[in-house]
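Work Package 3 committed the consortium to producing structural models of liganded targets before the mid-term review. Because experimental data for this complex are still outstanding, the team generated a predictive model from sequence and the ligand definition alone, so that downstream docking and mutagenesis planning could proceed in parallel. The input record is reproduced below exactly as it was submitted to the modelling pipeline, together with the SMILES string for flavin mononucleotide.
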Amino acid sequence: MKKKKMHFAQFVMHGPTYHSLAMWRHPETRRDLPWDRPELYQHIAKVCERGKLDMVFFADLSFISDAFQKSLAPALRCATQAPMHDPMPLLSWMGAVTDTIGLAATFSISHHHPFYAARVWASIDHLTRGRAAWNIVTSVNHNESNNYGEDALLEHDLRYDRAEEFMEVCKKLWNSWDEDAVRADREAGIFADPEKVHRLDHEGRFFRCRGPLTVTRSPQVGPALIQAGASPKGRAFAARHAEAIFAINHFAEGAADYYADIKNRMENEGRNPDHCKILFGVQPIIAKTETEARDKQALHNELVPDEGGLAILSSHMDYDLSKLELDDVMQPIALPGLQSMAEMYSRTAGKKLTLREVAKMHGESVSLPQFVGTSEQVADQLEAYFDTVGGDGFMLSATHSPGAIEEFVDLVIPELQKRGRFRTEYAGKTQREHLLQE
Ligand SMILES: Cc1cc2nc3c(=O)[nH]c(=O)nc-3n(C[C@H](O)[C@H](O)[C@H](O)COP(=O)(O)O)c2cc1C
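The resulting structure, written out as tokens with the ligand in place, is given here.
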């Protein structure tokens, strides 16, 4: 039987750390291409295009967490996914020096009107000639609302109801210019055909919008759509709209359940389940020999400060972990998120852990499994996970940058190509075509 091919996205953030809090001070992280210069991201885009990856994908957060000890100090000292510059302007920089690689960014809908979102994304889709992808998030942290002058986040399910209408308005706006609306007929003096540009006059529960969009129909009719959210409402939203999903499941069995659930939901929505690629996060650590790779992993993990781990885990749990006992072996705890996190890391470590140890592991990879070894061994681990799940691919997160991305592209990609598990050429030019390529 023909083996299914993998899809790959490269995870990045416009900041000094991603899922690894060691990244900014890792000895291999180059100083001549710092995280706050656009040249770094142009370089990453070119490397990923050389590797024929589906996309470079930016996560994004608009707050610095004070969840641990009710202080910003730990997050600032340890750069726990902060600072975080806006990724959107970088997509144009990266698009300017590449031809084919998809360019994705997270853009929260919680603090904007759909008209602005539709306009900026259609513009980026034009600028990149159909390579834009939007990771739609509803925001998860009250600090973010406070930064936008709101006291609290909308209640969870209401956020997704609002998101549903948000997407309805965006999709109508992207379609408000017909394909042949622009005539640019110099002789006749007609730029656009007024019959082919439509108002919306949308009056909904959350939004009003007259339309049409001020941006002409973009190459992909708006960007490709990505989603990341795990609740039943989040999954339902993804099943209706997403063409790719970023998911985290430390173990392949859990990933298989999630995968089957989303594909089922898509079928129930009348969608082809192949039309949304679920990409599971992994953190590869590659070297010439297994021993070298293990040493590299140890060096990386030792660089993660305990304080950073506690700060990022507190932020993700939205709970101040300094209120709990840090150094005794953890006992069952009535915080469900933390309990499952502790069980997951204990299983990986092969022993019971203290809360400080759990937090430290969280600072190493934020729940992404570390795939460690030679290029063949990492390819084996990817294949084993992929075949247990049934598809579709991975979101790669780096331990150092630049550097780790090059290692993956130059060492693991050729190995997977040799095994017939990854494309050797792009079949199309747009983000959507990459995601649909077999
Ligand atoms: C793997 C993953 C990645 C996420 N990345 C981001 C992000 O970059 N920015 C953000 O604001 N929210 C991010 N989120 C939060 C989600 O968009 C969503 O708001 C949150 O998970 C709550 O929805 P849920 O209850 O459906 O999971 C992420 C969530 C997951 C599961």
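Reviewers should note the following from the model. The mean pLDDT is 96. These observations will guide the Year 2 experiments.
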